[in-house]
Amino acid sequence: MAKTRWPPRASHGLGLFMLLVVVLLLADTVSAKALVATDGQTGDPDYSCGPNKPCAIGCCGQNNVCGMGPDYCSAANCINSCDAKSECDPAGWGPQYAASEKCPLNVRSSLHSSELQ
């Protein structure tokens, strides 16, 4: 009867461990690339817009970028999708740019972080 070496040789255990690490890293990479936006777009969302290309979310500003608030949605600045409103109004834009004055989590927004303190 042949004797089985216990514990198994370290080289076998190390090889199996390395294989497991590689498999887990590959699985994580594949799952990250498989993320799909609600509109079926993969990768980073497209925030570009133009006179003939409306925004999926927000108003199309003169800089051909989608955004919210008066910088993007005012009559002077908007070139497409001009009726979009933010869900709430953390920046104090007013009812013409936001659907609700209060945000669900009482979130505040500012161009200058020092104003949040």
> Which structural class should the secondary elements be placed in?
alpha+beta
Q: What is the overall silhouette?
A: elongated
What is the share of helical residues?
Answer: 10-25%
Total beta strand runs: 3
Count, helices: 2
Q: Based on the structure, what is the oligomeric state of the protein chains?
A: single chain
User: Which sequence of strands runs across the widest sheet?
Assistant: 2-1-3
**Average pLDDT metric:** 75
Distance between the termini: 76 Å
Q: What portion of the residues fall into strands of 2 or more residues?
A: 5-15%
Largest sheet: 3 strands, antiparallel
Question: Can you give a write-up of this model?
Answer:
- With 117 residues, this protein is of the alpha+beta class.
- The protein has a domain at 45-109.
- It has helices spanning 10-33, 70-73, and strands spanning 59-61, 66-67, 78-80.
- It has a three-stranded antiparallel beta sheet.
- The model is unreliable at 29-38 and 110-117 (pLDDT under 50).
